[in-house]
Write a structure and sequence with these properties.
544 residues; alpha+beta; 53% helix
Length: 544
């Protein structure tokens, strides 16, 4: 750097950009210094305008990232057969493939060949791969694409859920809920829980912003009951264990041997074919060999029937629980859950012993909000402590802290204008903005103090004016560098840009208000703080 900078270095006052900025800044500074109280009132009104975007901005844990692919995870009602599930899966795949932006579709029903995926048969999972964006129709976006898919794939009996794959896996690992919002209904009576969940499902569907809602059913499962007639079994010399062993071997399967293929060994299991296992009559005709070598049928010693029951049982904290999946579209997460809570409190009468809780992304939002309630005050306290250690004066440290809310005004307005919700990402941006705004105030105050110390006549008004004018160039350089670095992040569209733009937006918005407020409000407030020592004279000449 030293080798590149050669020759005569021009003075700061000779820089045309600096002279132009000073010419613009000087009249505003003079007006503020002549009317410092009015300037503070105007600043207060500017800060009051931030109450509007503050009440209109929604809340979410993290903005939804567009991962390039999409998961379609509908849920059917319990009791669906394997043939019907396969037919529905093929039907939905064909409907999804009719959208021009879809490259390929692959779906499954039930659980995969893995012990870590205990999905029931009525839960579908379809992976949708999209074509590159340059091959999409003009004006098509991810949001419009999901809306079009949801409009085309309308199958009676299926509740649609469209979820990014990575986010879905993280949510299910952390909370078990596949949808952005989950409602848990817990109690001691399965029938009462089921009735309450169905009522909540009906109420939630009426809340604006709810795209779909589905309560897991605790009834509708089909079970084959083998009721053994003990007296009849005893007449043939059979006990209950003998009959149960025959049933479990024929229906569930029994290992009869082992096959060796190289170094690998595989068990050999035998059981009835599916077409026989699915028939009550065929099961009743299952041959049973008695100890006396007499061959009878299972229906002779047992009654085979189909009974209803819960398709799946869950428990939390020792209590049975059922889940309600809620998918949202066009609403912020915080506002949606608040409306759902009000609707449930108004329209649903909870039976004694039944409780309702909320999970999914909302659970992360609640945890982050509680954490921010600690992080933000601690951050402000650290900033205040560092300011006091810098100036050794409580009033000057409080002056810098008082200007921080004005700096946040621009960030709130930009979030509102861009349609962003308040999230953990934007909170990080606001914390960074608070640090930069405090830095602006510190540098301005140091310039003012040095200008006052350099004047032997003690004219505070003139000193404040000189110090503020000297701050124009470094302020412009700082703001230009920050805007040049963050603006490409704000307008970027690559993977992860949804999160990065939320971090950059408060900083960019704050850079539109923080410099003006620190250049105008701090000199006015500092002048009022030192007014008693000021002489009632006008500043001499113009010092740049």
């Amino acid at each position: 750097m030293g080798w590149l900078i050669r020759g005569k270095i021009p003075a700061e006052q000779s820089n045309p950009v600096n002279r132009w900025l000073t010419r613009i800044y000087r009249p505003a500074l003079d007006w503020v210094l002549e009317r410092p109280k009015k300037a503070l009132v105007i600043a207060g009104l500017v800060f009051a305008t931030s109450l509007w975007p503050m009440t209109q901005i929604g809340g979410e844990f993290m903005p939804q990232m567009h991962e390039g692919d999409l998961l379609y995870m509908p849920s059917a009602l319990p009791g669906i057969s394997a043939a019907r599930a396969s037919s529905l899966l093929q039907q939905t795949d064909r409907l999804i493939k009719t959208v021009p932006e879809v490259e390929s579709v692959f779906g499954k029903a039930g659980r995969a060949d893995s012990a870590t995926d205990p999905a029931p048969l009525e839960m579908f999972e379809t992976t949708i791969r999209f074509k590159p964006k340059d091959r999409w129709r003009p004006g098509m976006t991810e949001e419009k694409l999901i809306e079009e898919l949801d409009a085309r794939v309308r199958v009676p009996g299926l509740a649609n859920f469209w979820i990014p794959p990575i986010r879905n896996r993280i949510d299910m690992l952390a909370t078990g809920i596949k949808s952005p919002v989950g409602i848990k209904v817990a109690g001691s009576d399965l029938a009462g829980i089921d009735r309450t969940a169905k009522r909540i499902e009906a109420v939630v569907k009426t809340v604006p912003g709810v795209a779909s809602a589905l309560a897991e059913r605790l009834t509708g499962g089909r079970y084959i009951d083998v009721d053994i007639d003990r007296a009849a079994a005893a007449r043939y010399g059979l006990n209950v264990a003998d009959v149960q062993a025959i049933v479990s071997g024929a229906i569930g399967g029994e290992t009869i041997g082992q096959t060796v293929e190289g170094l690998a060994r595989y068990p050999i299991s035998v059981r009835y074919p599916r077409e026989l296992r699915d028939s009550i009559g065929e099961l009743a005709s299952l041959p049973v060999l008695t100890p006396s070598r007499q061959q009878i049928t299972l229906g002779t010693v047992a009654r085979v029937k189909v009974s209803d029951g819960p398709p799946m049982l869950r428990s939390e904290n020792g209590r049975p629980v059922t889940w309600i999946y809620v998918d949202s579209r066009g609403r912020d997460l915080q506002g949606l859950v608040q409306d759902i809570q009000r609707a449930i409190a108004r329209d649903v009468d909870l039976p004694p012993g039944v409780s309702v809780s909320y999970t999914g992304q909302f659970e992360f939002l609640v945890r982050a909000t509680e954490r921010m309630k600690v992080v933000v005050p601690v951050t402000l306290a650290i900033i205040f402590l560092l300011l006091y250690l810098t100036f050794r004066r409580w009033d000057e440290a409080l002056l810098i802290m008082a200007t921080l809310p004005f700096a946040l005004t621009g960030g709130l307005w930009l979030l509102y204008l861009l349609g962003y919700n308040q999230s953990v990402a934007s909170a990080v941006g606001f914390i960074a903005l608070a640090g930069v705004a405090a830095e602006f105030g510190v540098v301005m105050l140091i310039y003012l103090k040095h200008a006052l110390a350099d004047r032997s006549d003690g004219h505070i008004l003139a000193a404040v004016r000189e110090g503020a004018l000297l701050r124009v160039r470094p302020k412009a350089m700082t703001v230009a560098v920050i805007l040049a670095g963050l603006f490409p992040i704000l307008v970027g569209t690559g993977t992860g840009s949804e999160v990065m733009s939320r971090i950059a937006a408060p900083m960019i918005g704050g850079m539109l208000t923080a410099p003006l407020l620190s250049m105008l409000i701090i000199p006015a407030a500092y002048l009022l703080m030192r007014r008693r020592a000021a002489h009632p004279v006008q500043p001499e000449g113009e010092t740049t």
